[in-house]
Amino acid sequence: MRWQPSTYLFASGAAASLGDGIRYAAMPLLAVHVTRNPVSVAAVAAALSAAHLLFGFHVGAVVDRFDRVRLLRRTQLIRLALMLVLVGAVAVDQATLPMLLVAAFLLGTAELAADTAVQALTPVVVRDAGLEKLNAGLTASQSVGEDFAGPAAGGVLFAWNPLAPFVAVAGTLAASWGFLTRLRVPGRVAEPAVRRSLTAEARDGLTYLLREPTLRTQAVWAAAMNLGVAAANATLVLYVVEKLHLSGGAYGLLLTCAGVGGLAGAAAVSHTVRLLGRVPTMIAASLVAGLATAGVALTGSVWLIGVFQFLAGFCGVSFSIVGRSLRQSITPDALMGRVTSIYRLIGFGSLPLGAIGGGAIAHRLGLGVPFLLAGAVMVGSTLTLGLLTRRAHLTGVPGGTDHPEPART
């Protein structure tokens, strides 16, 4: 039976997300196995997202310049090769902190290129009619893999044998590449009449984003939200192990609570958007996520923390799906890779800063303080930047509705 292109893209993304979820639980646990210093553990999380700051401006120009399908296949092969090197290092007990930092940075760089290519391909695979549905499916699989099944498996596998989760990640990357070999869609946009430098081409994406009020304010809002999320998540493993005195498996299961919430959020988001509208859905989701993040520091009950994790996952996935669809619907295909990468540079470039900041704050002020400050940042940014995004969107949409115009190609 021959699948639709959207099914191959979904299957590839689901396999990669499962591997990412296993890695998200296993790498912090491996870092804690190497060192208990909060700053050092947070540095591993920061290294995973540092590529956004270093390469986020140019990666979209690369995605728009080359065949996106072929680029995605090669990127998955690179990620597989990096993971096999890490497997070898863990097998011979040579996974030192510097080696983990290098591996995290290179894996994060490859993941940045892959994610940008997937988001640029999504409107090509389904066009306008299925945009929300495929984004919800990709985000749901990402939630299941990265926050639900993956972290639980990563924690359990690491407790059984530290080598096992990294072998499993390599297997998921191989499966992801295999699905991509079956994907048949146009991967290259129209060639420009004159080829310019990557910097000049990337600047076109920046110019478009800065001139589009909705995208501009949304990107800054996402940056503030991710700053808080990263500050809390970077030290969550230490909070669980040191303050709550739980095992690595319990840490993975707490992450799973966020994954269950994310899956529920993906299933409910279309109904929520019909009820509230796109930007109001983002505002409501980010407010609840901020309150749930702060709530982690206000209780010693692991069950209540699990509830907060569920709410954060539900709202975080809702925010992500709606924001991604909103961005794709108002961006021309020829600029999709560049606008996506510039948006991610602004929106996700704060991740390493938040991770390092969260580690430093936990080291000096205590393991619960990053959660309180992160929640305050998330709520405050929503009440300012979120409302500005809504105003810009209503002003820019004909008729003043809260639904974006169709994608311009």
Automatic annotation (TrEMBL):
Signal peptide: none
Membrane topology of the entry: Multi-pass membrane protein
Pfam families: MFS_3
SUPFAM superfamilies assigned to the protein according to its UniProt record, in alphabetical order: MFS general substrate transporter
Domain Major facilitator superfamily (MFS) profile positions: 214-409
Superkingdom of this protein's organism: Bacteria
Transmembrane segment boundaries: 41-63, 84-107, 163-180, 219-241, 247-268, 275-296, 302-322, 342-361, 367-388
Keyword annotations of the record: Cell membrane, Membrane, Transmembrane, Transmembrane helix, Transport
InterPro entries: MFS_dom, MFS_trans_sf, TM_effector
Compartment(s): Cell membrane
Keyword Transmembrane helix on entry: yes
Protein name: MFS transporter
Originating organism: Actinoplanes flavus
